[in-house]
Specification:
Layout (H helix, E strand, L loop, with lengths): L2 E2 L2 E2 L4 E3 L8 H9 L4 E8 H5 L3 H6 L9 E5 L3 H13 L4 E6 L4 H4 L11 H14 L4 E6 L9 H10 L5 E4 L13 H8 L6 E4 L5 H11 L3 E4 L9 H11 L8 H19 L1 H7 L1 H11 L9 H7 L3 H20 L1
Parallel strand pairs: 3-4, 3-10, 4-5, 5-6, 6-7, 7-8, 8-9, 9-10
Antiparallel strand pairs: 1-2
Helix pairs in contact: 1-11, 4-6, 7-8, 8-9, 11-12, 11-15, 13-14
Length: 330
């Protein structure tokens, strides 16, 4: 069995940390459907330590085990203190973000910008590892750009410093999410580290997961944007990798009930005023992933995306998906 330090990993699929997506309700759904591990949204270490309510909510993990908090930062002091605070609040694993390509993150010399300065990157890693008694993992990209592919160098140094698992997204920062993730390039990291290796980037289905593991030599795969509107996908891929069986996605009444449960959990976490707005992107993704978006009558999408009355939105969602099941059966 694969372990992160002494913590066993149930299967080969991890739900990626995604800002604005993998909050507590989404992670709980993914776990229920069989994801091996789920990771919090990226949390700014300094903001967590200084009492930001948004950062606290991002790091929330009630009911999740093992609870993984991903931290980002550029100063060893704040990374260490953030890790200590997350551990004290119940985190079982700390993940360090050196992969985020967003300009607002890299302009502050955090995320994937750290791959331009391996000295600073290592000081953050060493401070975080020394600060806690729980395992620390690392997420990175192949490098800053095609001229600086240094993931193997950083990975080896990180392992030597005590990092217990490494995730590599098969793109450079300069690519953002364009083009195709290079899974074969991840194999260069596999050749220099012995800790569990996770391949990330463009895992959207069963066959991709197979090919990803084969080409990268990784132990696990990480599912990111492919889980938009499909919180069951990581678990279904994990089941497929173990059994060869391709489970069928929820539809009709079952999907309607899942979406409504997710909607209500978002409202509970954020409160109704913020929750109805935070849920809209998920509603759109569910419609898109279900393949029914193009069938929606005029005004339906606008209604659920702008309505501020939760009961109205829930009734519209329920009616749409139950009726879509009836249409297919007809």
């Amino acid at each position: 069995m694969i372990k992160i330090g002494e913590i066993p990993v149930p299967n080969k699929v991890i739900l990626a940390p995604m800002s604005g997506v993998t909050d507590l309700p989404f992670r709980k759904l993914a776990l229920r459907y069989g994801a091996g591990l789920v990771v919090s949204e990226m949390v700014a270490s300094a903001s967590l330590v200084t009492g930001s309510e948004e950062s606290r909510m991002r790091s929330e993990g009630a009911g999740i085990r093992p609870h993984i908090v991903q931290l980002a930062g550029r100063e060893p002091h704040w990374m260490a203190e953030g890790a200590r605070m997350a551990e004290a609040a119940g985190a079982h694993i700390i993940d360090i973000n050196m992969g985020c390509p967003a300009k607002k993150v890299t302009s502050g010399y955090s995320g994937s910008a750290l791959m331009k300065d391996l000295g600073l990157a290592m000081s953050l890693i060493e401070a975080t590892v020394a600060a806690v008694d729980i395992p620390v993992t690392l997420k990175m990209r192949l490098g800053w750009d095609e001229a600086s592919i240094n993931a193997p160098v950083l990975a080896k140094q990180a392992e030597d410093a005590g990092i217990k698992m490494i995730t590599v997204h098969g793109r450079t920062r300069s690519q953002f999410y364009k083009g195709k993730a290079d899974w074969k390039a991840i194999r260069s990291v596999r050749e220099v580290v012995s800790v569990p290796l996770v391949a990330n980037g463009d895992c959207t289905g069963f066959e991709e997961a197979d090919l990803m593991l084969e080409q990268s030599g990784a132990d696990l795969v990480m599912v990111g944007r492919g889980a938009y509107g499909r919180p069951w996908l990581p678990g279904f891929i994990a089941h497929y990798l173990e059994t060869g069986e391709k489970r069928v996605a929820p539809s009709g009444r079952a999907l309607a009930e899942l979406i409504i449960e997710h909607y209500e959990a978002i409202l509970e976490l954020y409160g109704e005023h913020i929750g109805v707005r935070a849920a809209r992107k998920h509603l759109g993704w569910y419609l898109e992933a279900s393949g029914t978006l193009h069938l929606a009558p005029e005004g339906f999408v606008k209604s659920i995306m702008t309505n501020t009355e939760p009961e109205t939105v829930k009734s519209q969602i329920y009616a749409w998906f139950v009726e879509s099941e009836s249409r297919r059966a007809a």
